[in-house]
Design goal:
The complex is a heterodimer. Chain A is α/β, with parallel strands linked by helices. Helix content of chain A is about 35%, strand content about 25%. Chain A has a domain of about 140 residues: Rossmann fold (3-Layer(aba) Sandwich). In chain A, a hairpin with a 2-residue loop joins strand 4 and strand 5. The longest helix of chain A is centred in the last third of the chain and has 18 residues. Chain B is an all-alpha fold. Chain B is built from 15 helices and two strands. In chain B, helix 12 crosses helix 13. Chain B starts with a helix and ends in a 13-residue tail after the last helix. Classes of the chains: A alpha/beta, B mainly alpha. At the A-B interface, helix 3, helix 4 and helix 5 of A face helix 8, helix 9, helix 10 and helix 11 of B. Bound molecules: adenosine-5'-triphosphate and magnesium ion (MG). Magnesium ion binds next to helix 1 of chain A.
């Protein structure tokens, strides 16, 4: 099978004031892969996600989605002087491309959040239904006057299907925030899937889960990858999960990718053991 | 209860209400305070619901309501003053420059559109601001509008700081009820549509909403424009109710009154806003009037403290009490519905005391 690139991060540096959170990151994710990003706390993993999803414009660098450049920036304004990262001139003078997060989502990249962000006054079902809004063809008049009955019915049907798939049927009408932690994480994934993404970014999907739940999640992630033809890029601390389902792993330390490879390669990489795995075992 | 049955109930209730209003008007003297309260209450209900759409359902804390009502009121008045009255109304400005009149419904809608256009224009810069700044900016906008409309140079259109009068008004209480009712129904339909869901998502969590592909700038602007449109219509109705208008009426105190109605009714509840609007107007115009009466005797006892303005003090205390102890207001984010009442009675008669879960805030 020939490799089809889905996500490519090129020389991305994210500098906050004087702090470099992501330092000249380069990585690629191919279609159908499950790729993990690991690294100690504060390594810049979430920041990398925030750059890819348009929450922050990178200080420098570019991001490609399915071969198209979707994000690009170079040190401008007061960053011109402050910038301490690499390749300061590579992108200078080219157009800055800085889409808002909703545009990125509409391109087909969906995400979940490390610190769960559900719509707190809405039920489980409504949380999923809201994500269907971006796929509408109705405008505000046709929607208000219910001339979009077919579309509305479709949105609801598809949301019910996701609800079922994520095994959330029994809590359909509960408030999202009243669910136990593990279920909330499931709901966040369901909500992301409702936007019909091709690339799914998961930020610590197993955080706060017990070993049994983590095991179920591992199988579940594999299943949705196959069922929805997804490409998955995820941040995770649970090494069992990462080693079990990842096709490839990137290791980040102080904002810099220090290693890349299959789970086997990463497990035996001395730099990784020193920077991360060793530390993790001592915790 | 099925949707069809529910709708049938609602239609029945509305029809019954209108018939009741009609009968009241046939029997009670038209000077009765009840009609004042019903008319003004309906108008305030509309503007309160429009404010709730923005503050309660989209989470945008805007305080421009009085300004948008002014725009609606002036547009309505200017477009409907009969030709033969223009010379006397615009006596200092040679009869003004607008020399045509429009039918009442068209002028009311034009008032809404005028407010919506201004909202669209100021929306782009203002809606980028975070909560408190947005409130200050919209409040400032309302004050500027009020000042501009009193400006002499615009006199040929706005009549400067002079009164606008002689435009058509309504006599029956049914008219404001029907207009406000239609507008509120439209707002409710919007809130229950996919756009309304997007608004609520923005209110709950902007970052998550954006990650779900919801364009924040676009949707905030939509909510702002629509809310202003209905504030404009309520301004037109207010002009009809008052029979004369002047820019100086539309002070920020008016916005605070509306905010109060929204807060007392429950931020995020349409029926709450409606109920509290009538209660508020009834209290301020009628039930609490006695507090302003210095010479009130109950069985020979002279009630102390009462003097003109004391009503306002009592009001202030009520507001503080609501904010301190009863923050959810009358309805919280819940709605008053036929179904809810049916449930209530069912529970009562089957003897089950348990409350069904459904409190939808923290
Ligand atoms: N908006 C911001 N402003 C300033 N500094 C930031 C900002 N966001 C992140 N940082 C800094 O960037 C660094 C990386 O943070 P990030 O959240 O990306 O780490 P992480 O790898 O996701 O860690 P964790 O495993 O704890 O989630 C941290 O030092 C953090 O303080
Ligand atoms: Mg993180």
């Amino acid at each position: 099978m020939s490799k089809e690139n889905v996500l490519k991060v090129e020389n991305v540096t994210m500098q906050f004031g004087g702090v470099i959170a992501v330092d000249n990151m380069n990585l690629e994710v191919d279609k159908g892969e499950i790729v993990s990003l690991i690294g100690p706390n504060g390594a810049g993993k979430t920041t990398a996600f925030n750059v890819i999803t348009g929450v922050y414009a990178p200080t420098n660098g570019a991001v490609y989605y399915k071969g198209n450049k979707i994000i690009q920036n170079y040190p401008q304004g007061k960053m011109k002087k402050l910038y301490r990262g690499e390749n300061p001139m590579t992108y200078t003078g080219q157009h800055a491309v800085a889409p808002t997060p909703d545009k990125i989502t509409r391109l087909g990249i969906a995400r979940t959040f490390q610190n769960i962000r559900l719509f707190k006054s809405q039920t489980v079902f409504e949380n999923i239904l809201i994500a269907k809004h971006m796929l509408r063809t109705s405008n505000i008049f046709t929607a208000t006057f219910r001339l979009n009955g077919k579309e509305e019915a479709r949105m609801r049907r598809e949301s019910e299907e996701l609800l079922h798939l994520m095994e959330l049927d029994d809590v359909r009408d509960e408030l999202a925030t009243s669910l136990p932690y593990g279920k909330q994480r499931h709901l966040e994934i369901a909500r992301a899937l409702a936007t019909k993404p091709e690339l799914l970014l998961l930020d610590e999907p197993a955080a706060g889960m017990n070993p049994q739940e983590t095991l179920e999640l591992t199988q579940f992630i594999g299943r949705i990858r196959d069922e929805f033809g997804l490409t998955i890029f995820m941040i995770e601390h649970h090494m069992d999960l990462v080693m079990e389902i990842s096709d490839r792993i990137y290791v980040l330390d102080f904002g810099k990718p220090i290693a890349e490879g299959t789970p086997e390669e990463i497990r035996n990489n001395p730099r990784v053991i020193e920077a991360y795995l060793g530390g993790a075992q001592n915790e | 209860m099925s949707t069809k049955k529910k709708n049938a109930w609602n239609v029945g209730l509305i029809a019954a209400l209108l018939i009741l209003l009609f009968l009241l008007e046939q029997t009670l003297p038209s000077s009765s305070m009840l009609f004042t309260v019903l008319k003004k209450g309906a108008i305030y209900a509309l503007v309160a619901v429009s404010m709730n759409l923005l503050n309660g359902f989209t989470g945008l804390f805007s305080l421009g309501q009085a300004g948008f009502m002014l725009l609606g009121a002036y547009t309505y008045a200017i477009l409907t003053i009969p030709m033969e009255s223009r010379n006397s109304v615009y006596q200092y400005f040679d009869g003004g420059i607008i020399q045509f009149t429009l039918p009442i419904p068209v002028a009311l809608i034009a008032g809404g559109i005028a407010a919506a256009v201004f909202a669209y224009l100021i929306g782009l810069p203002v809606l980028r601001l975070k909560s408190d700044y947005l409130a200050i900016a919209t409040l400032g906008f309302a004050e500027i509008i009020r000042a501009v409309f009193q400006w002499d140079k615009l006199g040929p259109v706005t009549n400067g700081s002079n009164l606008l009068r002689n435009f058509p008004s309504f006599r029956s209480v049914v008219f404001p009820f029907v207009v406000a009712g239609i507008c509120i129904a439209l707002i409710v339909m919007l809130i229950n549509s996919t756009y309304g869901r997007a608004f609520k998502a923005i209110r709950d969590d902007e970052i998550a909403a954006e990650a779900m592909g919801i364009n924040l700038a676009h949707h905030k602007r939509l909510a702002f424009v629509i809310s202003s449109f209905f504030a404009g219509i309520s301004g037109g109705l207010l002009a009809m109710y008052q029979t004369t208008i002047q820019a100086s009426m539309f002070k920020s105190a008016m916005t605070y009154e509306i905010l109060l109605i929204v807060v007392i009714g429950g931020i995020g509840s349409v029926t709450g806003s409606c109920i509290s609007s009538f209660l508020f107007i009834a209290c301020s115009e009628w039930w609490l009037r006695f507090l302003d009466n210095e010479n009130l005797y109950i069985g020979g006892f002279h009630v102390p403290f009462l003097r003109p303005g004391f009503r306002k003090v009592v009001f202030a205390v009520v507001i503080m009490a609501v904010v301190l102890f009863y923050r959810q207001g009358i309805m919280g984010t819940k709605e008053f519905s036929v179904e809810g009442i049916a449930d209530f009675f069912k529970r009562k008669f089957s003897g089950k005391k348990e409350k069904k879960g459904g409190v939808s805030h923290e």
